[in-house]
């Protein structure tokens, strides 16, 4: 009997875990319109990135020349910085414009990525990562904070996602009529 109860409990637990996970869907202009039509502020929506985004920058500082004990000492310094935003990292909207959103994935809210729905003259289906310039391998130059970074190849296909919880409400009304009789 205890074995059946534990199997039943395990089945209920697995079912609840499966149904508690909300699928993530692309954030589209149509979805944005529905949200805004309901009077919901877009900054109240939790966003996620669809794929890993890696930002890289290299900076070579000018040579520093010194004399140390009569010897010439030349200092060469190269700074390499890499920022990784893992797939499905939660982000918030800092600024919303008609065609794009500034999304922040970290505590420093000046470090944002721009996702937009405009690609040249055509409108995109989902809000896609914007760059100042894209290369042929879909790697881009992106302003992050006040610094220009280069993304990894393929980053141009990263889109914004939101969790979708859909509820259906069924209202069932039931009544039985008694009929009518002729009244004279």
Please render the helix and strand layout as text.
Layout: H1 2-20, E1 24-26, H2 29-37, E2 47-49, E3 53-68, E4 71-85, E5 90-96, E6 100-104, E7 112-119, E8 122-129, E9 133-134, E10 140-144, E11 147-151, E12 160-163
Antiparallel strand pairs: 1-12, 2-5, 2-12, 3-4, 3-11, 5-6, 6-7, 7-8, 9-10, 10-11
The succession of helices and strands, N to C, reads HEHEEEEEEEEEEE
Q: What's the number of extended β-strand segments?
A: 12
Tally of helical runs: 2
Strand arrangement across the biggest beta sheet: 1-12-2-5-6-7-8
Radius of gyration (CA) equals 28 Å
Strand content range: 35-45%
Uncertain segments are 5-20
Content-based structural category: alpha+beta
Overall shape = rod-shaped
Mean pLDDT: 84
Total of domains:
1
Assembly form of the protein: single chain
Helix content: 10-25%
What does this structure look like?
By secondary structure, this protein is α+β, with helices and mostly antiparallel strands. It has one domain (22-163). It has two helices and twelve strands; from the N terminus they run αβαβββββββββββ. The chain has helices spanning 2-20, 29-37, and strands at residues 24-26, 47-49, 53-68, 71-85, 90-96, 100-104, 112-119, 122-129, 133-134, 140-144, 147-151, 160-163. It has a seven-stranded antiparallel sheet, with no helix packed on it. The longest helix has 19 residues, at 2-20. It is rod-shaped, with a radius of gyration of 28 Å. The model is unreliable at 5-20 (pLDDT under 50).
């Amino acid at each position: 009997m205890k074995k059946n109860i534990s199997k039943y409990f395990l089945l209920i637990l697995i079912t609840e875990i499966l149904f508690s996970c909300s699928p993530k869907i692309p954030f589209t202009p149509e979805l944005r319109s529905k949200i805004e039509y309901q009077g919901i502020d877009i900054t109240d929506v939790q966003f996620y990135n669809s794929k890993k985004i890696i930002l890289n920058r290299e900076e070579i500082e000018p040579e520093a020349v010194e004399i140390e004990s009569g010897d010439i000492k030349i200092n060469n310094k190269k700074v390499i910085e890499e920022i990784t935003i893992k797939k499905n990292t939660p982000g918030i909207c800092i600024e919303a414009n008609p065609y794009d959103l500034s999304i922040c994935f970290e505590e420093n809210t000046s470090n944002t990525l721009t996702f937009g729905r405009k690609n040249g003259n055509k409108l995109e289906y989902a809000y896609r990562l914007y760059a100042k310039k894209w290369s042929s391998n879909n790697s881009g130059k992106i302003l992050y904070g006040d610094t220009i970074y280069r993304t990894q190849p393929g980053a141009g296909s990263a889109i914004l996602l939101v969790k979708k919880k859909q509820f259906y409400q069924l209202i069932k009304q039931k009544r039985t009529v008694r009929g009518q009789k002729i009244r004279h």
